[in-house]
């Protein structure tokens, strides 16, 4: 039985229409949590060893959507610059592959399922995340904003929020310097950088793209009044999408598909033994079911083409920020962290959008650059990184303060500096279709469950033997040693009492 339509709309991550009102950082004071944080004692003195920190956060970009990752179908010079002058992790995952839950992790350093919605249910999707109420004293005193205020950092936030009232940037004490989510956001961030601020700052730049790819299937298959209204209010998003879908000038359709358009992915067909929970999830979203059944091969390839162009669009906005740093001489006193809230299925398994536990949806880019301080051009393909759990302790480590929220979160600083330290062997990820544990040996143990289905389905995937997740190995003889180990990690470490 499909979710109520309001839940579906929220799941699109497009509940809020384009924003038009800008807020000027220099004149706006942080409120809420910022004032409450004053009671926690004096700020840590500013030191030259503590950099300014910029967290650039895109929306719906899977980890292979950059030319630095070997993707030949797009050019991302800004992202590539970060990779060439810093560290790129290839095994980074979101805490939950959908917008609002992932953003709750950004602000709190906790798994989204730690929180309950107004009905007492653990948060697994957008609707529940937006219904998180008042924070507990424990959470309120250990959010990212709270820790950084103690460290003496000025907090700035610009762009997409999609957070419950208790965790909005304003409520947490950030200066909200613009609500724009696109080029104007990049320009405002660049203006602040060029102003040569004296106090150390932490800035979140939350860019919307390549999220506009969502509108392709929604527009093509909108059938309900709510879906049609969503399309009618998304004028800017659709205009951007239409520009991304255009073929190069003077190129015929035949030449376009022969030379320019990305091919279908190796895992284009649905997974063999596709879990029932995924089938239920797809059936609950009219546009997604229709896209799987009705899009032609050319439609899917066009979707991939547009996704590449939208990623290039956001890369150009990132370049604006990098230019400001370089031209103002601040590269060597600024740490840049770069990631995304989740990925996009990008035609894998004949799917688009997010929310699933496949690599395209759950895997995210994670890069760090502090020129002259971190190892340049390093690719880390070993360590499991949680963008949601590890961001808070990492940022605070560089800010000169030891901070914790979820004790399973780890500072990435030792890895970024090339130190050999014991590291996690497993990592948990939540979703609306179930939960999974990935391990250092590239296995994925998943317990699929659908809210209106009382049956749980277990899958074991092996990314070494089958990197495109075309099948599963749950009944394979070699799984007998792996399944109990990952089942224990699931029950004892990542999802106790779930």
Could you characterize what this model shows?
It is a single chain. Strands 5-4-6-1-7-8-2-9 form an eight-stranded mixed sheet, sandwiched between helices. A four-stranded antiparallel sheet has the order 11-12-13-14, sandwiched between helices. Helix 4 (99-108) runs parallel beside helix 18 (387-398). Helices cover 36% and strands 15% of the residues. The chain starts with a helix and ends with a helix. It has 498 residues and is an alpha/beta fold. The protein has a single domain, classed as Alkaline Phosphatase, subunit A (3-Layer(aba) Sandwich), CATH 3.40.720.10. The protein has helices at residues 5-11, 33-36, 77-84, 99-108, 126-130, 137-140, 144-150, 169-172, 183-194, 214-221, 225-232, 235-245, 253-260, 276-283, 286-294, 297-327, 359-362, 387-398, 413-416, 479-494; strands spanning 52-58, 87-89, 92-93, 154-159, 175-178, 201-206, 334-340, 366-369, 378-380, 385-386, 426-431, 434-439, 443-450, 453-462. It is built from 20 helices and 14 strands. It is globular. Strand 13 and strand 14 (453-462) form a beta hairpin. Belongs to the sulfatase family. GO terms for molecular function: arylsulfatase activity; metal ion binding. Pfam families: Sulfatase.
């Amino acid at each position: 039985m499909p979710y109520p339509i309001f839940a579906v709309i929220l799941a699109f991550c497009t509940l809020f229409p384009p924003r038009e009102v800008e807020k000027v950082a220099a004149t706006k004071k942080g409120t809420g949590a910022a004032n409450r944080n004053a009671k926690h004692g004096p700020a840590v003195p500013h030191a030259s060893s503590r950099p300014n920190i910029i967290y650039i956060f895109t929306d719906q970009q899977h980890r292979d959507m950059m030319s630095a990752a070997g993707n030949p179908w797009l050019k991302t010079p800004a992202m590539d610059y970060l990779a060439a002058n810093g560290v790129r992790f290839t095994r980074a995952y979101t805490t939950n592959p959908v917008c609002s839950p992932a953003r709750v992790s950004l602000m709190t350093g906790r798994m989204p399922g730690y929180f309950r919605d107004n009905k007492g249910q653990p948060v697994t999707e957008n609707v529940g995340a937006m219904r998180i109420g008042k924070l507990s004293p424990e959470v309120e005193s250990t959010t990212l904003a709270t820790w950084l205020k103690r460290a003496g950092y000025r907090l700035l936030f610009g762009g997409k929020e999609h957070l419950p009232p208790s965790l909005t940037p304003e409520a947490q004490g950030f200066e909200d310097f613009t609500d724009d989510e696109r080029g104007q956001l990049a320009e405002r961030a660049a203006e602040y950088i060029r102003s040569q601020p004296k106090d150390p700052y932490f800035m979140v730049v939350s860019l919307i793209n390549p999220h506009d790819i969502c509108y392709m299937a929604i527009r093509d298959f909108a059938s309900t009044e709510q879906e049609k209204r969503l399309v009618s209010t998304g004028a800017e998003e659709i205009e951007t999408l239409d520009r991304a879908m255009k073929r190069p000038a003077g190129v015929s359709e035949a030449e376009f598909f022969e030379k320019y358009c990305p091919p279908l992915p190796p895992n284009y067909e649905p997974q063999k033994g596709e879990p029932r929970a995924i089938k239920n999830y797809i059936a609950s979203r009219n546009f997604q079911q229709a896209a799987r059944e009705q899009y032609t091969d050319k439609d899917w390839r066009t979707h991939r083409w547009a996704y590449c162009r939208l990623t290039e669009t956001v890369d150009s906005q990132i370049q604006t920020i990098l230019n400001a740093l370089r031209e103002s001489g601040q590269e060597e006193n600024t740490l840049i962290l770069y990631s995304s809230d989740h990925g996009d299925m990008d035609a894998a398994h004949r799917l688009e959008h997010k929310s699933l536990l496949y690599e395209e949806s759950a895997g995210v880019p994670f890069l760090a650059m502090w020129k002259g301080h971190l190892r340049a051009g390093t690719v880390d393909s070993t360590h499991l990184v949680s963008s949601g759990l590890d961001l808070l302790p990492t940022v605070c480590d560089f800010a000169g303060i030891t901070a914790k929220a979820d004790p399973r979160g780890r500072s990435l600083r030792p890895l970024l500096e090339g130190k050999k330290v014991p590291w996690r062997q497993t990592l948990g990820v939540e979703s609306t279709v179930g939960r999974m544990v990935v391990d250092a040996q590239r296995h994925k143990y998943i317990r699929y469950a659908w809210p209106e289905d009382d049956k749980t389905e277990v899958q074991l995937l092996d990314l070494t033997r089958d990197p495109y997740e075309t099948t599963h190995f749950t009944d394979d003889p070699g799984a007998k040693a792996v399944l109990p180990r990952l089942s224990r990690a699931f029950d004892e470490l990542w999802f106790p009492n779930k």
